[in-house]
Amino acid sequence: MTSESAENVEPGTVRPGGRTARVRESVLLAAGDALAEHGFDRLDLADVARRAEVGKTTVYRRWSTTTGLIADLLDDMAEQSSPRTRTGSLAEDLRANARLVLSTLTDPRQGALFRSVIAAATCDARTAQALHRFYAVRIKEWAGCVTEAVERGELPAGTDPDEVIRAVSAPLYYRLLASGDPLDEAAADRAAEAAVVAAKAGTFVR
């Protein structure tokens, strides 16, 4: 990488190796813990450095701002997310997707982390962009089960895979962030079933 191109790279966007990778892993873990415990408003790079047991200058030099750190955290979470389930049945695949979302949102650490990041995204453009990238990766990962269902003849030709996957998770996020209704397996299974019924009816045909 030339010096000119290095100057144009945003903090936290270069994927390091060796010791630098280990430092990044420690810092991102510490950042996730801090977000889950205190939320975005109280996220502090110095505190993250202390938790990760690395020098403050290392954290400030690499990530520069809390939003840069959150952006890198979300990118890492997208990369580390579990691959999609392949059952050969659209209903079972979408139920697996709904239950994966459920397990994430109800996890004490992950649920709190996502609430903090979503709150931050409403008032910070860079965090919003990182959050959009995270969900784009996850939707792309799971859209294949819809494409395969179309190929098997379970769904009408022209069904939009991304919209079907969004329809599964949207009710669960609504419960988490808005209504406060119970987040449980029954809710997850209903969300998946509703998405299957709507998709078979042609609701998501482009």
What does this structure look like?
- This protein is mainly alpha-helical and 206 residues long.
- The protein has two domains: 3-77, Orthogonal Bundle (Arc Repressor Mutant, subunit A); 84-200, Orthogonal Bundle (Tetracycline Repressor, domain 2).
- The chain is built from ten helices and no strands.
Briefly, what is this?
The protein has 206 residues and is mainly α.
Fraction of helical residues: over 70%
The Cα radius of gyration reads 19 Å
The name of the CATH architecture of the largest domain is Orthogonal Bundle
Biggest pleated sheet: none
Domain count: 2
CATH class of the largest domain: Mainly Alpha
Organism: Streptomyces poriferorum
Pfam family, one: TetR_N
Protein name: TetR/AcrR family transcriptional regulator
Keywords: DNA-binding, Transcription, Transcription regulation
Please write out the topology:
Layout: H1 3-7, H2 18-38, H3 45-52, H4 56-63, H5 66-80, H6 90-106, H7 108-121, H8 125-152, H9 161-179, H10 185-200
Protein name: TetR/AcrR family transcriptional regulator
DNA-binding region: 44-63
Domain HTH tetR-type: 21-81
Key attributes of the depicted protein:
206 residues, mainly alpha, Arc Repressor Mutant, subunit A, Tetracycline Repressor, domain 2, elongated, disordered N terminus
